[in-house]
Amino acid sequence: MELARLFDELTRAAERAGVRVRTEPFDPNLSDVKRPRGGLCTLRGERLILIDAKLPLPERIATLAEALGGVDLEHLYLPPIVRATIGAYAPVVAQAPAARPLHAVRRRQ
After folding, report:
1. Would the pLDDT of 22 be above 80?
2. Tens-place pLDDT, residues 50-81
3. CA 87, CA 103: separation in Å to the nearest integer?
């Protein structure tokens, strides 16, 4: 899939999940981050993904996919490449170690 189409599919997935996507040029002087990229935020009660329009397309895709990693998309059908892209950029969630069965203990006599 070409990158422009992948970006459009990710945008559509966000909108179907009720999250607006806005791509705007960021002013780097307004952030204390060296190179702001964007991400998921809530503005006036509405969930929104903001993306810096000056980023190259692959970085815009990465920013959008990473933000979608925090959105519940299980109820939506997504093309496999879209779901795989989101999965590749989703934050890793630490899982608790699996419980191991206890060994049999002999009773003292």
Report:
1. yes
2. 999 999 999 999 999 999 998 989 999 999 99
3. 38
Residues in the chain: 109
**Rounded CA separation 17/77 (Å):** 11
| Residues 9/19, Cβ–Cβ less than 8 Å | no
Residue 28: is its pLDDT beyond 70?
Answer: yes
User: C-alpha distances in angstroms, 56 versus 46, 59, 60, 70?
Assistant: 26, 5, 6, 22
- Bridge partner residues of 52 (DSSP): 24
Residue 41 burial class via C-beta count within 10 angstroms: exposed 0-12, middle 13-18, buried 19 and up: exposed
Q: Answer for the pair 10, 85: CB distance below 8 angstroms, yes or no.
A: yes
CA distance 19 to 24: 16
